[in-house]
């Protein structure tokens, strides 16, 4: 049974083909799954998708009509899938509930360090043999107060690194993580975390309650020179409000690996096109802002774990099993 995998990156393809070799033939597509590309899945009982797929009602109906019975998403997040419609159509859906939390936590700190020490500006200058230090002054991380919003697996890893730098840790979550408490983290209300932190990093999932968690009022509570890092989900930050905050001279730096309107932009080459997203274009003009293209998870270790779990999810579907990764179990009959 051939499996069709959508949205496969060039570095990801050989890892997928190696993992599935000898078990199931797999056909990898660069295009992302949406209503326009869903007809390509006709005749494939099992497909695999990426987090930037758009599995709305229209796309799901096309998949079901073409014979698809199982969707194996290669990510932890699944807010791009209309689960209610998928269930009505009898589609089995699985995700990857766990992969290396170090990949994202380390990248979040990469963003923080790059923004704080103005690495992008410095690298662009030195390539032009401009070796001035003007405008490149950063701050010691040691001694900072670091606010961690979301202290699950990734937030915990981020906190351990922060602890190694010698920071004061503040945390916010629906429940305390004992491992973070052992690091000396003080769990405080959101308002306190925003007001006291020199650096704030987001590690919560995108849910209705967390959409635009960082809005104009949250931004206003932050220190004027605070650093904001988001390597979780773009929708956590109200980007329009962020732009206005930056325009007023607020915040010392922002590092974003995700963007709320990234679908159709991230993972594509748009360098020869006119940018029509005015908010993103304005955001990119600020010298203290660094935007990367949803690559925090993109290490060989993490991607290999994602692929291995995806293969296990497919095997579970074929055997009629469920696991912690199952979002919608296989329909009876």
From TrEMBL:
Gene3D superfamilies: NAD(P)-binding Rossmann-like Domain. Keywords: NAD, Oxidoreductase. The keyword Translocase does not apply. InterPro entries: D-isomer_2_OHA_DH_cat_dom (IPR006139), D-isomer_DH_CS (IPR029753), D-isomer_DH_CS1 (IPR029752), D-isomer_DH_NAD-bd (IPR006140), D-LDH-like (IPR058205), NAD(P)-bd_dom_sf (IPR036291). Residues 110-296 form the D-isomer specific 2-hydroxyacid dehydrogenase NAD-binding domain. It comes from the Bacteria. It is an enzyme of class 1 (oxidoreductase). GO terms for molecular function: D-lactate dehydrogenase (NAD+) activity. Pfam families: 2-Hacid_dh, 2-Hacid_dh_C. Its EC number is 1.1.1.28. Residues 8-326 form the D-isomer specific 2-hydroxyacid dehydrogenase catalytic domain. PANTHER family: 2-HYDROXYACID DEHYDROGENASE HOMOLOG 1-RELATED (PTHR43026:SF1). Belongs to the D-isomer specific 2-hydroxyacid dehydrogenase family. This is 2-hydroxyacid dehydrogenase. It comes from Streptacidiphilus jeojiensis.
């Amino acid at each position: 049974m051939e499996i069709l995998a959508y949205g496969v990156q060039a570095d990801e393809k050989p890892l997928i083909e190696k993992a599935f070799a000898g078990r199931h033939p797999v056909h990898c597509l660069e295009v992302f799954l949406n209503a326009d590309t869903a007809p390509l899945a006709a005749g494939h009982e099992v497909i695999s998708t990426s987090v930037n797929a758009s599995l709305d009602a229209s796309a799901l109906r096309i998949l079901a009509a073409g014979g698809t019975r199982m969707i194996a998403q290669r990510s932890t997040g699944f807010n791009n899938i209309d689960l209610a419609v998928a269930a009505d159509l009898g589609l089995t859906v699985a995700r990857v509930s766990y992969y290396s939390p170090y990949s994202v936590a380390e990248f979040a700190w990469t963003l923080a360090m790059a923004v704080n020490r103005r690495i992008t500006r410095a690298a662009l200058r030195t390539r032009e043999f401009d070796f001035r230090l003007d405008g490149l002054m950063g701050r010691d991380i040691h001694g900072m107060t670091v606010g961690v919003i979301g202290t699950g697996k990734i937030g915990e890893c981020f906190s351990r690194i922060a602890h190694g730098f010698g920071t004061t840790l503040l945390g916010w979550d629906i429940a305390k993580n004992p491992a973070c408490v052992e690091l000396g983290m003080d769990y405080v209300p959101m308002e306190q975390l925003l007001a006291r932190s020199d650096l704030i990093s987001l590690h919560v999932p995108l849910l209705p309650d967390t959409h635009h968690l960082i809005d104009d009022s949250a931004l206003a509570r932050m220190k004027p020179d605070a650093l904001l890092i988001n390597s979780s989900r773009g929708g956590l930050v109200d980007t329009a409000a962020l732009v206005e905050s930056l325009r007023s001279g607020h915040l010392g730096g922002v590092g974003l690996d995700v963007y709320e309107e990234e679908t159709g932009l991230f993972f594509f080459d748009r360098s020869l096109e006119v940018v029509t997203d005015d908010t993103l274009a304005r955001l990119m003009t600020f010298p203290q802002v660094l935007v990367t293209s949803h690559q925090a998870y993109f290490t060989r270790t993490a991607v290999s774990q994602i692929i291995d779990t995806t293969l296990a999810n497919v095997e579970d579907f074929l055997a009629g099993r469920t696991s912690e990764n199952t979002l919608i179990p296989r329909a009876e009959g």
